[in-house]
Amino acid sequence: MKAGVFYHPDFSKKGHITLRHRVEPGFNALHKLIQSKKIQVFTPYIDEESNQLLLQTHHKEHIARVQSTPYHEVALLSAAGVMQAAQKLACRELDFAFCFVGSAGHHAGYNYTWGFCYYNDAAMAVNKLRSLGIGKIMIIDVDPHSGDGTRDILGKDPAIIHINYHGDEEYNYADHERQNFGILIDGADDKVFLQAVDGYLQQQWDYEFLIVILGHDGHGQDYGDFYLSTAAYRQFAVRIKEFAAGKPMLFVLSGGSNPWVAAEVIPAVIEVFTESALAVP
Ligand SMILES: [Zn+2]
After folding, report:
1. Ligand 1 midpoint to CA 233 (Å)
2. Which residues have a Cβ under 8 Å from the Cβ of 20 and sit 6 or more positions away?
């Protein structure tokens, strides 16, 4: 598989104060994969297109509010990287991409946000993919907090499948006719999480492109309400690789603040997509 990582040093320098300390350790832990040329590194950039897609995805009042915070530029740079990864995957220059970010995206709705999120990177990537003629997109969100912002922006489109694993009872919305699913697994350990993942991955789905929102705040040593081990993240990646074989796979970093968790989980996940054969579970 052709695997790419999108990373900018500003994510650790200018990123959200809770999220930024894990970025550089997570990236540095990839040095062996980079040295052995198993993954290619790309540097995101802001251009006219990223600004246009931002206006297409969020209300102008929301953008104005974010512009008054210190995080507008790093949030836009994060989303730009996700869009640039989506483009390379869409034209099959890459088969798998992992995007580092300086802020998160899945709590950013059309005209509101919370929880270290500013611009919805996945929704901006979806708008980019639609412009390339790719409309059937599956989003699997395994950050332990609910992807309410993504649902707010994309939930009305039945061509977008949104499978949202989380522990937030008050945000457990579902609308199966529009392919919106909420799986409440508050306090999940490895077994509960992987069983819940298998329950959906073993079904038949009609999609062309997969986006995974990966928060390592679901690790037992990080701040979310799942209690997963690094091995569970690896097993999740093994399942995704098999599930979406032959389709473009875009992983977007989400919550998580513990530097050593990032340095364990991120390479464990990416390594799966650089191995030629599937690992035996
Ligand atoms: Zn989270």
Report:
1. 15
2. 11, 12, 13, 14, 102
Cα(91) to centroid(ligand 1), Å: 30
Per-residue pLDDT at 281: 47
117 CA from centroid of ligand 1 (Å): 10
CATH homologous superfamily of 3-272 equals Histone deacetylase domain (3.40.800.20)
Ligand 1 mean position, distance from CA 276 (Å): 31
Domain spans, the chain = 3-272
- Contact status, residue 29 vs residue 264, Cβ threshold 8 Å: yes
Tell how far the Cα of 104 is from the centroid of ligand 1, in angstroms. Answer: 9
User: Which residue carries 């600004």 as its tokens?
Assistant: 51
pLDDT attached to residue 279 = 47
- pLDDT for 33 equals 97
The pTM of the whole model exceeds 0.85: yes
* Rounded distance from Cα 159 to ligand 1 centre (Å): 25
Which residues sit opposite 165 in a β-bridge? 183
* 8 A C-beta contact, residue 271 and residue 99: no
**Centroid of ligand 1 to alpha carbon of 145 (angstroms):** 4
- Cα distances from 179 to residues 8, 12, 41, in angstroms, run 34, 35, 34
In which residue ranges of the chain is pLDDT below 50?
279, 281
pLDDT at 277: 60
pLDDT tens for residues 235-272?
999 999 999 999 999 999 999 999 999 999 999 999 99
